[in-house]
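Please decode residue identities from the backbone states below.
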């Protein structure tokens, strides 16, 4: 049986490696993310003027119903976030090799890993951006030109959604590829990249959800639309591997000459997209439930 949005949210951990990583990136968008893992608390966060228990219970029931209706696309959005995390871990696991020795001796389940090849990492980043774009469309019931997605992020993303994109920039672009990740990705051999894309487990999963065009084209255009936004944040905060390594060093002990391995470790051991994705869907469905509640109240007054 599919879990309700309440169950999904309230099963999220309050404190683990994923939440520590997200908190460490708060300096880029301060105050945007709170690790809300209680549904009524999320209602209060989104609808600050609602304090009546009966109203909260009514909104909660409506939100559950909206999530359970598959036509609304919320379950698909959650599935996408969970799927991209699962395939991401599979890619990271495939990169394990005898290369580091005891550098990661503090990690109980991983002591040897290797960075992904740049092309593999580039495709992984592009795939996650494409998944985010599709999830956004599913939640909002719209079809979005992929070239407009960057504008949508800049203008509309807040809270968990904005934090997720910042984490994606830091963990999947800057940390593995460096601050000049755009140049590196744009310089990739298209044939080589297509070969890697075809082998990516997520490609087959999402290709039927890509609206009306070739998957490769959709993925490339989505990435292209995000370039200005991602590069702008990178330049504004001077993001690089050293800075990010320093932000994480209070809970991940790693030497400076092994920072390129940190991305592979985080790929294998965190689920930022799923964690914040569930919070995003919960917030979205609460807002829609509240709007429906207002309509129902108005109809009751008129009857």
């Amino acid at each position: 049986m599919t879990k309700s949005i309440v169950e999904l949210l309230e099963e999220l951990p309050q404190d683990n490696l994923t939440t520590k990583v997200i908190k460490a990136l708060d300096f880029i968008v301060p105050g945007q993310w709170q690790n809300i893992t209680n549904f009524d608390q999320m209602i209060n966060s989104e609808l600050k003027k609602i304090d009546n228990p009966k109203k909260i219970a009514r909104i909660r029931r409506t939100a559950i119903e909206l999530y359970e209706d598959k036509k609304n696309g919320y379950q698909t959005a959650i599935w996408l976030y969970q799927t991209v995390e699962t395939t991401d871990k599979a890619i990271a696991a495939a990169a394990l090799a005898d290369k580091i020795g005891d550098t990661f001796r503090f990690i109980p389940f991983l002591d040897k890993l290797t960075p992904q090849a740049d092309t593999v990492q580039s495709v992984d980043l592009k795939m996650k951006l494409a998944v985010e774009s599709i999830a956004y469309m599913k939640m909002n019931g719209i079809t979005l030109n992929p070239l407009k997605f960057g504008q949508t992020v800049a203008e509309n993303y807040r809270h968990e959604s904005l934090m997720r994109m910042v984490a994606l920039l830091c963990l999947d672009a800057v940390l593995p590829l460096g601050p000049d990740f755009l140049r590196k990705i744009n310089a990739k051999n298209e044939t080589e990249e297509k070969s890697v894309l075809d082998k990516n487990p997520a490609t087959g999963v999402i290709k039927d959800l890509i609206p009306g065009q070739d998957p490769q084209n959709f993925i490339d255009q989505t990435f292209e639309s995000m370039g200005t936004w991602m590069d702008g944040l990178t330049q504004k905060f001077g993001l690089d591997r050293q800075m990010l390594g320093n932000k994480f060093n209070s809970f991940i002990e790693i030497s400076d000459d092994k920072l390129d391995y940190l991305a592979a470790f985080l790929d294998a051991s965190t689920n930022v997209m799923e964690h914040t994705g569930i919070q995003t869907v919960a917030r979205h469905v609460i807002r829609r439930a509240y709007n429906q509640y207002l309509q129902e109240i108005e109809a009751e007054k008129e009857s």
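Observation: Residues 18-31+73-269 form one domain.
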